[in-house]
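wait is this the right file?? whatever heres the structure
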């Protein structure tokens, strides 16, 4: 891979929530749609995770409303192997990040809260794409904490799913262009 993270091998982004059935699969499918084949591979997993489940129906409906396809999602548990294959891990709650860092502290430099990273990217005057943007973000990143959490919409109805999707979309609208080098 080139030093900017955008060479021949795709830049890999992993979204992590609790069960990998609502927030992380939504973000995975939306990011895939937004990257539009720009040399990025996106995936999702859960920590602690609940394997082999489909996507939350309300979050799947939010994806469909935005032109993304939720079909085929099967939840899985985050593993060391998945982390080792990933350049960036985005979590939805502070507790997810803590669990990852407790089990795999060597990966701390690539694990951010999704809203925490979006805030950092907005602080960078001229973000460079790929790994360079992550280095820049580390220099301006505010401490992670529960104040950055994206509420879990699972079993909370359509309004909660809509609010969650909007929050994730807002973060992705900042992160995706910066990572891909398509910042205006």
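ok assuming it is, sequence goes like this
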């Amino acid at each position: 891979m080139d030093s900017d993270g955008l060479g021949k091998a795709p830049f890999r982004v992993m979204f992590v929530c609790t069960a990998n059935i609502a927030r992380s699969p939504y973000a995975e499918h939306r990011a895939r749609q937004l990257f539009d084949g720009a040399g990025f591979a996106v995936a999702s997993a859960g920590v602690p995770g609940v394997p082999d489940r489909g996507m939350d129906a309300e979050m799947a409906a939010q994806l469909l409303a935005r032109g993304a396809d939720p079909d085929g999602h099967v939840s899985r548990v985050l593993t060391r192997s998945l982390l080792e294959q990933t350049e960036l891990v985005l979590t939805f709650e502070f507790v997810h990040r803590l669990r990852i860092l407790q089990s795999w502290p060597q990966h701390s430099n690539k694990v951010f809260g999704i809203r925490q990273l979006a805030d950092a990217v907005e602080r960078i005057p001229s973000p460079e794409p790929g790994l360079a943007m992550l280095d820049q973000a580390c220099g301006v990143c505010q401490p992670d904490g529960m104040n950055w959490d994206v509420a879990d919409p699972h079993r909370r109805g359509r309004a909660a799913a809509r609010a969650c999707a909007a929050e994730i979309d807002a973060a992705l609208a900042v992160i995706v262009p910066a990572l891909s080098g398509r910042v205006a």
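The first strand starts at residue 11 and ends at 17. so i think its the right one actually
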